[in-house]
Design a protein that fits this description.
By secondary structure, the chain is an alpha/beta fold. It has a single domain, classed as Rossmann fold. Helix content is 35%, strand content 11%. A five-stranded parallel β-sheet has the order 3-2-1-4-5, sandwiched between helices. The radius of gyration is 17 Å and the shape is globular. The termini are far apart.
């Protein structure tokens, strides 16, 4: 089977990284099937951004799967806990931040695996990054490798010799490199959303970890970030 005829499942959050990963998979000739997880995140803007990105990427099918993690809590993104703010990237606290959602990428990849097996796909793309990131343990290369092994042990497709591949093409890229790749592939970053704590006017706060890393990435790339921030 040629690569041009292969299906791929993209974990699409509506953020900068997942939009870039979708563009990479499209450029590689895959037919794109997107999965967005409505996990009880703090705001609707993330889901709106995922819908915008899916529309522009020519996604064959976009599934929005509700899995409400607010019942579990344990994160500033799913519970009534303040999102940490910092003045700049250098002042971001060390260690795993309170914005870490327990087992989020394990849950997301499990859903993507089920989706992929159901549509006879063995390729899953995820936009994790272990360079310019907030220190989440489920963004590391060791986690991706371990989940790929699990995928091939735990599925009918894997048992029958149809091996899954978890693609994480951004995992060792800086944020500025990711932005440059996306721009070459035609990603409209004005459609994306990264902020953990946007204002009621839908402006990015500019001070959460995600905003700071995004702003630094655009600055390092020498490109103006097209999203609106609180002034």
């Amino acid at each position: 089977m040629s690569k041009a005829s292969r299906k791929a499942v993209i974990l699409l959050s509506g953020g900068l990284d997942s939009a870039t990963v979708a563009a990479i998979a499209r450029d590689d000739g895959f037919e794109l099937y997107a999965l967005t997880v409505a996990y009880g995140q703090r705001h609707q803007l993330e889901l709106d951004a995922a819908a915008r990105v899916a529309e522009t990427m020519g996604i064959a099918r976009h599934v929005v799967q509700p899995v409400d993690l607010r019942a579990i809590g344990g994160s500033a993104l799913t519970a009534d806990i303040d999102v940490p703010k910092s003045a700049n990237v250098a002042s971001i606290s060390e260690g795993i931040p309170i914005t870490y959602v327990p087992a989020r990428n394990t849950i997301f990849l499990s859903l993507a695996l089920a989706f992929a097996e159901a549509i006879d796909s063995t390729d899953i793309f995820i936009g994790v990054n272990a360079v310019d990131y907030s220190g989440y343990p489920d963004c590391r290369p060791a986690f991706i490798s371990a989940f790929e092994r699990l995928a091939n042990l735990a599925t009918k497709a894997g048992a029958e010799g149809n091996s899954f591949t978890i693609h994480s093409p951004l995992i060792e890229r800086s944020k500025s490199e990711i932005i440059q790749i996306g721009l070459r592939l035609g990603v409209d970053y004005g459609l994306t959303h990264s902020c953990y704590d946007p204002t009621p006017e839908r402006l990015a706060c500019g001070r959460c970890d995600s905003c700071l890393l995004r702003k630094k990435g655009f600055a390092d790339a020498g490109v103006v970030d097209p999203v609106g921030y609180v002034t």
